[in-house]
Amino acid sequence: MLLHTCCATCALPIIEYLLTEEKVGDITLYFYNPNIYPEEEYNKRLKDVEKIAKIYKLKFVNENYFYDEWLKYIKKSLPQSPEKYLENSDRCLSCFHFRLEKTIEFAKKNNFDEFATTLSVNRFKNIDYINQYAKKLAKKYQLVYKAFDLNPNKAYKLGLKLTKKYNLYRQKYCGCEFSMI
Ligand code: SF4
Fold it and tell me: Chain-centre distance of CA 114, in angstroms?
């Protein structure tokens, strides 16, 4: 399975679930998040995803960091400037499109049968929309999309617990410059 991974905290409960409950052995963590700003923040999140890949002995792929490309896409897809949108509005839906499209292209090109995203258990995100959009892409590319049957609040708590256990970084904002506080 190719698991699009937004950050270590969101990935941890899913990895635990896949390994222990579903016995999925072959998982590749795919770090594709050009939405993260600035690069220093990107590198902190990247380092921790690499760290958990080592802890759980999973494969890991890091895509290049192209914030400008992400920003161009977001600007093009919205009628107003990105800063005019609140979190969880249309700007975020475009951001999900961008990351999921790249993920499924990578999955197809590299012969994965199944893909999933850690975004789909994040209690702060529009989970239904993410699952629906990913399923639509899966149909188009003839791949299987895995939607997790996990309680987002429980997953969040477990993510925090494991983040502490492994001494990982906890981000203070979603990712892009517009979500910085
Ligand atoms: S707030 Fe988060 S999901 Fe929304 S556009 Fe920014 S990085 Fe993407």
Answer: 15
Q: How far, in Å, is the centroid of ligand 1 from the Cα of 75? A: 13
pLDDT at 76 over 80: yes
From the list 58, 4, 51, 12, the residue with the least C-alpha distance to 31 is 4
First to last CA, the chain: 34
Q: Which domain holds residue 155?
A: 2-179
- Specify the residue for token string 């789909």: 120
* Domain count within the chain: 1
Q: Check pocket membership of 58 for ligand 1, CB cut-off 6 A.
A: no
If we measure between CA atoms, which residue out of 88, 95, 89 comes closest to residue 70? 95
The number of the ligand 1 atom at minimal distance from the alpha carbon of 74 is 5
Tell me: the pLDDT tens digits for 3-52? 999 999 999 999 999 999 999 989 999 999 999 999 999 999 999 999 99
- Please choose, from the candidates 177, 120, 169, 124, the residue with its C-alpha nearest in 3D space to the C-alpha of residue 8: 169
**CATH code, 16:** 3.40.50.620
- For 49-60, letters b (16+ CB in 10 Å) and e give bebbbeeeebeb
- Does ligand 1 have an atom closer than 6 angstroms to the CB of 117? no
